[in-house]
């Protein structure tokens, strides 16, 4: 189980401005790649994870699947949160792996 601290910056850009933004320094010199992913978010029917401040996701990218538990600190635009990742074999939660995160409580 790998624990990371994620710092995320979310920008909202109108589709007609996206290409112009890509040509703006320093983004113009940055490498980029297109990646197709499939993500499923899980919670209980009563939203226990959300109420406790967590998110549980399984994401497939190519042949690789990763389960991620994130602390659900919200913010507008820029925020920082803890996350725990583990490779999984299916697009369903691995509860044994999740038990080694703060979800164990």
Structure described in brief:
This protein is of the alpha+beta class. The chain has 3 helices and 5 strands.
Overview of this protein structure:
The structure is a single chain. The chain is α+β, with helices and mostly antiparallel strands and 105 residues long. It is built from 3 helices and 5 strands, in the order E-H-E-H-E-E-E-H. It has helices at residues 15-22, 48-52, 95-98; strands spanning 2-9, 37-42, 54-61, 64-71, 78-87. A 5-stranded antiparallel β-sheet has the order 1-5-4-3-2. A hairpin with a 2-residue loop joins strand 3 and strand 4 (64-71). The longest helix is centred in the N-terminal third of the chain and has 8 residues, at 15-22. The mean pLDDT is 88.
Provide the descriptors you would attach to this structure in a database record.
alpha+beta; 105 residues; 5 strands; globular
**What is the approximate shape?**
globular
Query: Main sheet: which strands, in order across?
Result: 1-5-4-3-2
Global Rg = 16 Å
Mean pLDDT: 88
Total helix count?
3
Q: What proportion strand?
A: 35-45%
**Cα distance, first to last residue?**
17 Å
Which helices and strands occur, and which strands form pairs?
Blueprint: E1 2-9, H1 15-22, E2 37-42, H2 48-52, E3 54-61, E4 64-71, E5 78-87, H3 95-98
Antiparallel strand pairs: 1-5, 2-3, 3-4, 4-5
